[in-house]
User: Which sequence fits this backbone?
């Protein structure tokens, strides 16, 4: 099963709006030369909208694919996948604010073994996710779930159970994954903005696949 990304929905409206603004400036400039500074600003906005529209084209059309054996997540900078048999829990994380539970806009996945991700994620994507997930790292620190020094990016070597030493972005990602699990009880986090479905619908769907998975 393929789950579409909502990102490309905005591509055409952005490009069209940008072209209209830019074309409007070209037509109005000879008639209103006294408004040149304002028209240049509008033209700049048009260019920004056009650029944003073409940038969206780089986003994957599919956010996730589900099969009987594994879950695969697609990102602009790569992808990762994990077998259902290694997924322990799928849920939406939350935190307490003024005695009220607040949901965090991510789908959280707890793994049985985090080392399964080593061969299933590229260094490029690992590096990107380290930075994209700074918001939930900072939130965990603000809530007192992790120490301030744990928020810092950790590129120290990561030693696997077999004794193999990892370096670089994947090592940094695994260190961060370990800290996130301490804070929220999950290792992998996918923004809910990647999907058109509600969080509850998607979590139910993922759990259905998990229950019916085969080796």
Assistant:
């Amino acid at each position: 099963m393929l789950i579409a990304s909502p990102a490309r929905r905005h591509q055409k409206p952005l490009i069209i709006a940008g072209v209209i603004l830019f074309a409007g400036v070209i037509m109005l400039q000879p008639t209103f030369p006294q408004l040149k500074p304002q028209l240049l600003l509008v033209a700049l906005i048009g260019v920004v909208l056009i650029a944003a529209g073409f940038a969206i084209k780089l986003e994957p059309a599919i956010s996730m694919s589900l099969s009987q054996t594994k879950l695969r997540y697609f990102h602009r900078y790569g992808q990762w996948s994990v077998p259902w048999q290694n997924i322990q829990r799928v849920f939406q994380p939350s935190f307490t604010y003024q005695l009220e539970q607040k949901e965090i806009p991510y789908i959280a996945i707890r793994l049985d073994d985090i080392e399964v991700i080593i061969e299933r994620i590229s260094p490029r994507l690992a590096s990107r996710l380290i930075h994209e997930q700074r918001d939930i790292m900072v939130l965990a620190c603000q809530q007192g779930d992790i120490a301030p020094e744990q928020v810092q990016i950790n590129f120290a070597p990561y030693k696997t159970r077999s004794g193999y030493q990892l370096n670089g972005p994947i090592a940094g990602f695994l260190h961060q994954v370990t800290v996130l699990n301490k804070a929220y009880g999950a290792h992998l986090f996918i923004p809910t903005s990647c999907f058109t479905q509600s969080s509850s619908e998607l979590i139910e769907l993922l759990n259905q696949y998990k229950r019916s998975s085969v080796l």
Notes: The chain has two domains: 2-56, 77-211. The mean pLDDT is 85. Residues 77-211 form one domain. Residues 89 and 110 are 5 Å apart (CA to CA).
